[in-house]
Specification:
This protein is mainly α and 122 residues long. It is 75% helix and 0% strand. The radius of gyration is 21 Å and the shape is elongated.
């Protein structure tokens, strides 16, 4: 016969793991913006107006040059948001509540899943 106390003990770790997974998936929304801006800036952030005629620099266009500042602003802003969310929800909050960091840090790679879903859908 299964006791209610045993069932509660079995459900508690699963609930912690699912809560941690959900938090990190939600953190993944601004992480997707961060990764997209990082990839764009790594590819086109080197373009300047002097580079327009040079064939060795991936044929820079005016749109890439003019969007470089917006991409850098998005990169810095989303990086600050992601780092603050990770520190707040994956480190500070569990430590204040007296919970171990194990579940939160094990599910941290789930923050990249929204970006992967966006790339596969596009």
């Amino acid at each position: 016969m299964v006791r209610v106390r045993d069932v509660r003990r079995a459900v508690k770790p699963a609930r912690r793991l699912l809560t941690s997974l959900l938090v990190n998936l939600l953190i993944g929304i601004p992480t997707a913006a961060f990764v997209a801006c990082t990839r764009w800036y790594a590819e086109y952030g080197h373009c300047e107006y002097e580079d327009l005629g040079r064939p060795d620099l991936d044929h820079c266009t005016y749109d890439q040059i003019e969007s470089s500042g917006f991409a850098l602003f998005g990169l810095v802003t989303s990086a600050l948001v992601v780092v603050s969310l990770v520190v707040l929800f994956d480190v500070v909050k569990p430590l204040r509540a007296g919970h171990p960091l194990t579940h939160r840090l094990l599910t941290l790679p789930a923050a990249l899943l929204p970006y992967v879903f966006l790339k596969t859908a596009a």
